[in-house]
Design goal:
6-stranded parallel sheet, homodimer, 358 residues, alpha/beta, Rossmann fold, 9 helices, globular, Quinone Oxidoreductase, Chain A, domain 1, 26% strand
């Protein structure tokens, strides 16, 4: 066998079968399972030592996040923050993976990482600097798609760096049992906020909020005919901090219940992602009269808080002072339904998809 | 004459004829001159020495401000910040006055002050701590109803303390030739912002903005069929700071033209004050994607900046580095039309009413 044939054989060996979730077409309205497809492909994963640095990942957990909806639309990007998918391309999102091959000095075979990966069994990452290495502890690996990943940074930075919380503050969290919301409520309680109230879409979630996630109060917003009277009931003195995961009508109403000098962190607006024309927020004048600070943020800007988040959360998790509820779907083929489900509130806790154990 | 008759005579002497502007009835929609009345009254201005401290003012200048519209509605107050007028009561607003009698140790006859006064020839102030004493310089007294009064604080604090401006920032000001807007643009230029662009409702005002108030650019928003394309023209790279005096559709559109990490100071929403149902702001999701900070403020919270404002502005005014354009109506009887006019953009510069020279 001459050298050329040997190289060819090596390359052949590196063509790994790779199941992938693809976007069949751009999505209008609520996403449906039929918007996605499962493709059997192969990954050209030949890592060329000595040239560019790359990492081949075996993907373990996928994170289902509301922001992913924006990738699926044929829209002009709002600011370039969210990269659009093209029709027929593999879905991309945060996930947890194992390094199975690496030509990058920072990563070696067997390392665990989290970061942006494809919704597929294997992903070749040609810019591995975007990956975060995981130092294995006794917390589940899937947590790096949640509390110790992007949603954790969003909750931690959004609450501590955007809301300026202080002891005794009245805090309201919408979509409170989700991957971000459940953490915000717990962070608020850990620093002495009172009352901390969350809203969710089912009684099961309300029960979780009150009896597992440590919220002082919780309510099922779908059962409240008058959102305003619910907010008055839980916040007779008004709200200091609103952590908004929902937007639209909820945000509009909450503004009326804010205290003077209240803070609103805009984390997400899931109520608006699947509708053609966003709902207008009419109570803007109250932002003036109440001197409210409303701030949008994305977790990308807060990478620097990650070490303190990891240290704190692992400590609290081990001490039992913090819990993290996950809803784990099994198998890549079930990833589309898990993703679609979050827009209907089907998930109970942070929605993750397990595509391989290790 | 016995002692009782002498006292009665003294009290009689103190009943001063006092013309007043009253609110005839609560206002719906745009205010009209007929919503207001001129009442000939007398003021029971007997200052009882030794008991409570009070100050009797002869009023000189009245400030016409958009926020006054809220006093005229039969609404529940948004936060208690704005005291509602009752139907038939004397209008209240900021103004400049001369002390003609005082039992308060901080004020003496002949002092000039600014603060909240009635729209009338004489006002008896029973809580004189709310008044600001004027140290006479060579600037016009009327400026204490503008650049050196509440609008000055709103512009100075709103720009410097809410917008975090820095050299080179692109700044947009709506209602830019008004009592607050013209100052924001000039403050922005003084600290090296570029470009500084204002919008107004007539060519005359646009000309003032460009050739007197030092804005880099200005446009007549009424002549722009597509506000978005106007904003793109003046801010091809986007807007760092939007100082909003207008709200509604303008605010909604500007959000789309903000840069990442832009700041929006919500100072006023004059476009919304005379309509039944506020326009909805639909582009809220861009606040997240662009990490925009939007903050409402009222000048009341920034009394502490007043000394630095006065020092700076008087210096700049004397050096010719700052100008202040006023639109002065003459006579208390013309105050209602001046006030009504600001909601139609009739004023060119800060609208003031002169009711007495000294």
């Amino acid at each position: 066998m001459n050298k050329g044939e040997e190289e060819k054989k090596t390359m052949m060996k590196k063509l790994i079968p790779n199941k992938q979730i693809i976007l069949n077409h751009y999505v209008t309205g609520y996403p449906k399972e039929s918007d996605f497809g499962l493709r059997s492909s192969t990954t050209s994963c030949t890592l060329s030592h000595g040239s560019s640095s790359a990492v081949l990942l075996k993907n373990l957990y996928l994170s289902c996040d509301p922001y992913m909806r924006h990738r699926m639309s044929d829209h002009i990007s709002h600011s370039g923050t969210i990269v659009q998918s093209t029709s027929g391309s593999v879905l991309v999102g945060y996930g947890v993976s194992k390094v199975i091959e690496s030509t990058h000095p920072s990563f070696k075979e067997g390392d665990f990482v989290w970061g942006m990966i494809g919704w597929e069994e294997y992903t070749l990452i040609t810019t591995p600097d975007s990956l975060n290495k995981i130092n294995i502890t006794d917390v589940p690996l899937s947590y790096y798609a949640g509390i110790l990943g992007m949603p954790g940074i969003a909750a931690y930075a959004g609450f501590h760096k955007i809301c300026y919380p202080k002891e005794g503050d009245c805090v309201y969290v919408s979509s409170a049992s989700g991957g971000v919301g459940q953490l915000v409520g717990q962070f608020a309680k850990l620093m002495g906020c009172y009352v901390v109230v969350g809203s969710a879409s089912t009684e099961e979630k309300v029960d979780l909020l009150k009896h597992k996630m440590g919220f002082d109060e919780a309510f099922n917003y779908k059962e409240e005919h008058d959102l305003g009277s619910a907010l008055r009931r839980y916040f007779p003195q008004g709200i200091d901090i609103y952590f908004d995961n929902v937007g639209g009508h909820m945000l509009d109403e909450v503004i009326l219940h804010m205290k003077v000098h209240g803070r609103i962190a805009l984390c997400g607006m899931i109520s608006q992602y699947n509708i053609e024309k966003p709902e207008g927020v009419r109570n803007m004048f109250s932002l003036i009269m109440k001197r409210i600070e409303m701030k949008g943020f994305v977790e990308k800007d807060f990478g620097h808080v990650y070490p303190e988040l990891v240290e704190l959360c692992i400590k609290y998790l081990q001490e039992g002072k913090l819990v993290y509820v996950e809803d784990i779907a099994q198998g890549l083929e079930n990833a589309p339904s898990a993703l679609v489900g979050i827009f209907y509130g089907c998930n109970v806790g942070k929605q993750v998809v397990c595509i391989a154990k290790e």
